[in-house]
Structures are given as C-alpha cells and as structure tokens.
C-alpha cells in the first residue's frame, strides 16, 4: 500500500479524535445508523443474545441426557428444547455470525470503501433479522416447536402440536435478511473496491464472503419458498408434501437440503476467511497458494449446491442417485483439504506470534480436520447407512459448526476487537479461555462419535443404560465448554472500560483495515486509499511503519 | 474524494462517482433477479414434479382456467414491457414528458392486469374452485355429464393440487405486480419532480429490469398453467 | 453410573451380528486411522512450525513465499485419489445393502407413532419385537401409517427410513443369536425415544418352533387369508375375475411379473405397484383395460394393503417370485424420486376367484409363551 506521508501524518494526529463510536451518542443515532460498522455492532449484540438463548437450550439438553431415563424434562419439553436449540443456533446465530458482524464491519474497510453499496438496505437487513428473531422468541414463549430444525413433513405438517407455522414464517422473514446481506456484499465487492484493489489483491476473507454471498443469494430463496409451502401445507392442506393428500414428503427433504446443505458452507466459508487473515497476520506471511485458497472458496460454494442428496441416503431415494451424491460429496472435500494444507504451509518460515487469535486458528485447524474427515465417514454410502441419524452425525456437525465457525468467529472477534472497540483485552485470559474452549469442546463432542457408532440415535430423550457413561462425559465437557464461553464475555466486556487503548495496527498486520485508526472514523479512512501491492505484502507494512517513524521523529 | 463528491446531485456520500453508483444499482438489481429466479424456481420444481405425477389432474385443472382472460393478460403484460422500455429510452434521452407518459401507461397496464387477475380469482371462488377444503367443490362429471368443465370425481384431489399450484404461482406473481405498481408510483412521482435526466436515470433503468423480469415470469406461467389442458377443448 | 468404559468388555462398536457388520467395522476403523493420521499430521506440522518459527522480535519480516504448484497439485490429487477409494468402498457396501438375495425371508413392517408392527409370512404378528432365524437373509418391506420413522438395528449396521406413502426395504443376514436393540432413528414426535424394541435372533429350529407356535400374538389368519377375505369384502373380484374376462386384469400369476401399460411402457407388478394401484388406480393402467377403478384411499389401511399383496402373491406361488435380485431403492418410490412416475392412468388390480395356493404354515389361534432367547 502506498500512502503519502501527509496522510499518515493526518491519521497519527487523529487517533484520539472522533471515531464511529463516539461520533454521536443517542440511541436513535444507533437504531437509524447507516454506518456499516455500527450495523455490525448491532448484529454483534443481537446474535450474542441469541447465542446465549441457544446455549441455555444446549445446557438443558446435556443436563437431561446425564441420566438415561429422561427424568428431568417431559418428552414434549425435551423435543422443543432440542428443536429450539437447533433453530436458534443455526438461523439466528451461525448464519449471521461472521458475515453479519465481522463481515459488515470489515468488508468496506478491506475494500477501501466508505460503506457497503446499499447502506439503507443493510440497516433494513438488521431490522428484518430482528423482526424474524422477535417472532421466533414469541414462538418460543407461546409453546415452541417440536419438529427438529429440519421440519420434516408429514410430522410438521399434520402431527405436531406446536407452533410450526409461526416458526416457519419467522424463518421465512429472517431468510430475507440473509438474502439482502448477501446481495449487498456481493454488489459491494463488485463495485466498491478502492483504486488498485483488484480481485487478486483482495484479502482472502473477502473471497470467503463472496462465496458465502453466492450461497445466500442462490440458496436462501429456495428455503424461503419451502417453509412457506410448509406453512400452507399445515394451515390449508395444499397436498404438496403430505402423502395422504397425494403429496410427497421426500420432495420436502430435497427442497430443504438444497438450501440447508449449502447453508453449512454459509456457516463455515466466512470462518475459513477469518482463519486466512489471522494466520497471515500472525505469521507475517502471505497465505501460501493464495489463488488456490481463493478459488477453493468458490469451488466449495458451487459444489456445495450439488451434494444435498447425501442427507437422504436412507430416505428411499434411488441407489444410483445416492452414488452420484456421494461422489460429488467427496469432491467437495478436496477444496477444504487444500485450504488446510495451505494454511499449515503458510506458517513455514514465518514469524509466528502466539497471540490469542493464533491460538484460535490452531484450534480451528485441529477441530476442522476432525470435523471434515468425519464428514467422509458420512459421505461414504455403506457406512452412512449405519451412522445416519445417530450421534455420530451430531458430533460431526458440531465439530464443523462449533469447532469451525464458532472458533473462527471467536478468533476473528479477538483479532479485530482492537479495531472495533479501540481497546486491548487481556492476552493472558484470552489464551486461557481459548484453551478451555478447545478442551471442553473435545470432551463434549468426541464421546458422541463413539456413542453414534454404538447406535445411539439423535433426538432421543431417554436412552438405553449402556450409553450413559459416554453421555456423562459429554455433559461434563459441556459444562467446561460453557465456562469457556463465559470467560471471554467477561474480559471482553471488561476491556471496553479498562482495556489498554489500541493503536491503529496492534498486530503489525497487513490490510487496509489496519491503516486507519482504531476505532475507525465514520468515513472509514481519512485519506483516499489506493492499493498498489498484492495481498499480505508485509514489506509494505514495514515501509509504512518506517515512514510513520520518520514522521514521528521529524515532529 | 468526499469534498467534490458532495456537490453532485443524486450521488450518495459513499460512492466516489456517478458511474460507480449506477453500476452498484444495476449489479444489485441483477443479483436480486437471480434470487427471485430461485424463489420462483422452487415453485416451478413443484409444478414439474406434480405435473408428471398427476398429468390428468393437470390437464383437467388447466382446462378450468380461462384462456381468453389469460391471453389478454399476456398481451397486456407484453405491452407494458414495451411501454416500460420506451420509458427507459425517454429517460436516457432526457424527454421528461414522454417518460412520465410511458410510466403512467405502464402503471395503467399493470392495474389492468391485476384487475383481470382478480376477476379470474373471483370466478374461481364463485365456482367453488378455491382449493381450501372448506371451499373446494367442483362440478363433477358424474353430477353434470354435459358440462365440459366438469371434473371426473376420481381426479378431484389431483385437480385440487393443480389449483393450489396455480394459486401459489400466480399469487406470488401478482404480489410482484403489486410491488411493481408501488415502484411505478414512486418513479412517476420522482419523474414529475424532474429528478431524471440524460445523466441520472438509473432508478428508471433498474425499475425497468424488475418490470421485464416480472413479465418474463408470466410468459412462462401462461403456457404452463393455462395451455396444458387446452386440447381438451376438442373433446376428451 | 455404570463405569462400562473401565470394564474389559467395553467396545467401541456394537456387536457384529450380521453379515455386513465385520466389513463395515473394518471400513469404519480404516477411516478413523486415516482421520487420525491426517489430523495428527496437520496438528504436528502446525505445532512444530509454530515452535520452530516463533516470533523473535516485533520487527521480524519473513521472506515472501508465494506458493508451489507441485505442492498444490500433490495435496489436491492425493486426497482426491484417497477420496475416490473411500467412495468406491462405500458404494460397494451400499450396493450390497440394497440388493437382497432372492431366497430372503420376507417380513412386512409398519411403523406407527410409536410402535413397530412386524408381520411374518404365516400371519404371526409382533409389536416392537422381531424374531428371526440365524444365517438366513431377511428382507424387510416397510411403510408407515403416519409420519417418517426409521428402522435401525445397530448390531446389524442396517437402517432404512420408513416413509408414509411408499415402501422402503432393507435386508440383513444375522450371524449371531441373541437379543439386539431396535431403534427408531428418524424423529417421529413425542415418544420417538420410546419407539424402540428388541430383535431376537434364534437358531433355525427355535425359530421354526416359535413361528409354528404363533409367536407372541396371532390373529389366527395368514396375511394371504386376510387379504383374500378383504378382497371379497371390498368386492374386488367383481372386476378382477380370475379367468381374465373381468373389467380389470386377473390377479392370478401377476405378482412380480412385467406388465404392459396403456402408455406402452412396462412395469413389474411388485409391492409398490400393487399398493399404488389400490390407492391411485389411475396412475398406471394395464394395457387393454379402462380407467374405471376408483381409489381405495382411506378405505384400506397400510396393513390391509400388505394383506392384499400377500394374497395376490399367493396366487402366483411357485413361479416368477423373484427371478432376479431386486434392487430395493428403485422399487420403492411412487413419485418424484424414483423413476417409476410414468404418467398414465390406472390399473385395476385383479382378484382371482380361485382359492389358490395355500400358505405353507397355518398358525394356530392359540397364543403361546415366547421362547426366551438370551
């Protein structure tokens, strides 16, 4: 990045001055803000609340499963608890997690833009999200839903005595928030790049977000129309999904997974983007094989649309369809493997920092490997017959969703925390909690692989006594994990008030977002950014800091 | 860039140039249309599957729809696409009066479409063809063998499935028309205030894209829904 | 808490009680080996590199490395080849799991919130239990009366969803006597976790004894008998005359044989076809017949349809029943997914009036005590 000395001069002076956080103070200025950074913060607060609610449900599940007899909750309650856990965590936490918080905050900064392409639409997305979220909370208070987050008919369309229609409508509404965010980001990446910020100079996080947006745009409308049709099926018996009326319940599964499998990549591609940024900055090296990592994101997004049938190997779809879906599922594993190998290769001959974000990145590598490799078990046809709908599946997707996305989200939150808030958190506590989360997570979910293979089916409220030992281990791990999630909540909040003030670039990282004060001013940059170097060119960071040092000396 | 940008009328603060703003709007609308395509795509999939499962139900169901009204609506929509295109052209060449004229004509054609659609819907409800359980009670062949539009009792429920798909697809399309009418009203209002000229007319262009998309959806809906049972006219 | 984990017999896999179990376990452990090798490999490499290249000072500026095409290609192609290998092994097992041997013992199962009903060929029915002989292939034809269920026997490593509106199938060959778990593994509502049962694998002669004694429950009539009675009650024979001169095709000898349809295609008159013909008579009409038959949807239960099928089957005993292994998945569908959804009209499935072949075993009306199997 080439920045004229006078610009550096300007922002050194302005570091303590007006920024996006203290520019205005009223509640109204936050609720009507068009600033992508403030909208990112609004999302951060809302999804944290949803994460807490989803987490409480998770705790109830683990508490219930300590004993085999199902003596804590009634079956009706338990079924609602695991459904609400899934629905809230997926639609209201994981899908918006990185895109809507870090994505909103960082994307324009990384591109060198003043805002996303459509700031009003961006605020509208948040309001739509909140309307959907509040409706879901109302659903929860008025009895919840007991269909599982997959809403399979005919149970959901006739037999369930819970608020399926209401839940369907809130997911329908929330879907539009996701679509509009994806649309906004895609247009922003296409049209709002600063001069010189070419496609192959983009940070890999932006590539990840681009691939994510693609899925949000192509997939989400399909789930929207599917849940809408389900709501009609339930209220008006339209006869599309209900076999008694001439409909086809398997059709629902096809339409549901056509979105919901790619949605898994909405939940992990942004995480991969975050890991690329962290590893590059924490090793001070360009990501090894930049083009391969960038294109693997797109490959995952595209192939991700062709593998939905691997959720239906036992559902009576034809054997040959199963084989095709299985083969493509194996193909989609390759781009993920490419990413992992390139990340490891990046560390080679780097200058590796052990700061908290790097600890999270390392945890991500290990957990994502296990999550990804166990995906191969499930994509393997003959083996999936046994593993389908058991705890093995539960363990697998938690390794990908929590071990992948949540860990990456926490890593990213720590990495950009100084930029977002202008404060440093306690590095010691950061590392301690990362380790607690890593250990607690493995203790919670590793036993579930064994449980699954032994035959413990999903969504069981009571189970046969021989599974108890592993369930107790898992519940014990869950309490460690819960502790691990509380610690960052405490020290991050603490840092807001007592944390050391952050400099513009506390990690000596590369990227446009580090070339503006922390927290950034409302207009993002005090100068017009022009990009002249490829991504992760740390030599240019040195040039800039040298220039800055010179300015300081002359001053 | 901020200082000089502020002075260009119609340029939002976060864009550097008019070209960038226009490009963002156009790309945005295209991306939105892709989303819309997937949205309708779900219903087209449902249509395809049930048409191949219940071919007879779809034939008889289709025969219940009014081809003259559907055809009129098709013509109305194609005309409205033409007037919309003329409107975009007028905006680009800076002809204020012509722009307003074409937009108003497009709006009138849109309302005509919705009017005809509502006549069709009311007729269906009156004929007990709205497929909710409480309202669905078509004339059966057994009850009235001379009625060409009577449905054989055996496929009553298949016809019902067809009618649901008809109402869902055309309902979703009509919803888009209503949104389009709102959009046209806003564009007419802006045009009357003289917002558009040779240099700034992207809302009109983007609105035009949306309008053509909605028309194209209908071009697919009309033959799939109205014409697949047309051959029953010549007896069955 | 029972410290099973500390006991010597704690296992990481369920008992291997079917012909599939050993190979599936081998596959499973092979994949774990691969997973551990890759995960430890990646973690060790990352850990070593982190220590080796630990940052010395804030001013460190490592050399710029772009990447390496050779490395990229090798770590794309080698995993891809491995993945293809895993695919092939999985697909092979899947094919086996989907291809029942011709001489398999056939059992019909209906799932219902929240119980499993199994019906043996001689009319013995049982609820939430399944008694089967050792070393004999068993083919389960299943459907649901209400919502989705899934028939899962971990010890056999088999599972198949049970779907309302269509037949699904699974098969296995038990290789060990004993009692095994039966679980419903597709979420089906409030008592989903209560929809469990036991599978009893017995020695051949014990099974025969159990079967002849009528199992635990009996309705005193074989499915074929019940089907015959039902066909009379419903008046099927009025059209489906045995001599083939009725308004509907004769049922005699029709089971599992190819039949020409009005639209020129050919269909095998298997279970799924018969079921469809009862419920949606116009979907596929045999050539030479008219679309006269009305649907029996709502008039017959899934179990009664199974009885009718057993009856029609009994009219063809001796020939045609499975001359080649049935590929289960494709036979199962009745709509979009499977390629059976040919547009056409109806069949009228015929009833023969001849009291044809009698089922081999007639169950006595008297219930008796279940044999206890360990």
The count of DSSP E runs of length 2 or more, i.e. the number of strands of chain B, is 0
> Would you report the number of β strands of chain A?
0
Strand content of chain B: under 5%
Biggest β-sheet strands, sense, barrel of chain A: none
Supply the number of helical segments of chain B: 7
Poorly predicted runs of chain A are 1-15
Which overall shape of chain B is indicated by the principal axes computed on the Cα atoms? Answer: elongated
Order of helices and strands of chain B: HHHHHHH
Output the number of helix runs of chain A: 18
Q: Give me the Rg of chain A, rounded.
A: 23 Å
Beta-strand percent range of chain A: under 5%
Oligomeric form: heterotrimer
Structural class of chain A: mainly alpha
Q: Would you tell me the overall average pLDDT of chain B?
A: 89
Largest protein-protein interface: A-C, 107 and 104 residues
Helix content of chain B: over 70%
Give short descriptive properties of this protein:
heterotrimer, B: mainly alpha, C: 374 residues, six-stranded mixed sheet, five-stranded mixed sheet
Brief account:
The complex is a heterotrimer of chains A (555), B (236) and C (374). Chain A has 555 residues and is an all-alpha fold. Helix content of chain A is 69%, strand content 0%.
Describe what this molecule looks like in 3D.
The complex is a heterotrimer of chains A (555), B (236) and C (374). With 555 residues, chain A is mostly helical. Helices cover 69% and strands 0% of the residues of chain A. The longest helix of chain A is centred in the N-terminal third of the chain and has 37 residues. Chain A starts with a helix and ends with a helix. With 236 residues, chain B is mainly alpha-helical. In chain B, helix 2 packs across helix 3, helix 2 runs antiparallel to helix 6 and helix 4 runs antiparallel to helix 7. Chain C has seven helices and 13 strands. Chains in contact: A-B, A-C, B-C. At the A-C interface, helix 4, helix 9, helix 11, helix 12 and helix 13 of A face helix 1, helix 2, strand 7, strand 9 and helix 7 of C.
